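Supplementary Methods, section 5.1.

A reviewer requested that the exact input to the structure prediction be made available. We therefore reproduce it here, unchanged from the version used in the analyses.
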Amino acid sequence: MTKLANLIACIPVDRSKLPDIPELAAVVVTDLYTLRQCEIEGCGDVWVGPRQLAAFNENPENSSILCYIHALAVQLHISGSFDPDTDLANLGGGYPVEGRPRI
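The structure derived from this sequence is encoded token-by-token as follows.
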């Protein structure tokens, strides 16, 4: 497997399979988010924030838009470990900084 520059971890439309942790529960999908498909076949739709989409568009050949679960699985497959302190980058933004909650 080729190492990717960016694994863009996005909130799935169906959050039922996500762990119940405050960081994920705090994600508010706004009117600025775009609906896309997780790149893992058969997974489902994800919400991509404007900064996530910009990061993807900067380097689409070496980036993947994935749901949180698959992003973690791919990271574990590539490196054999996962350290949230070094393996995650917060792109900033989000509600209430940007956009209005999607209803």
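The chain has a mean pLDDT of 86. These observations are discussed further in the main text.
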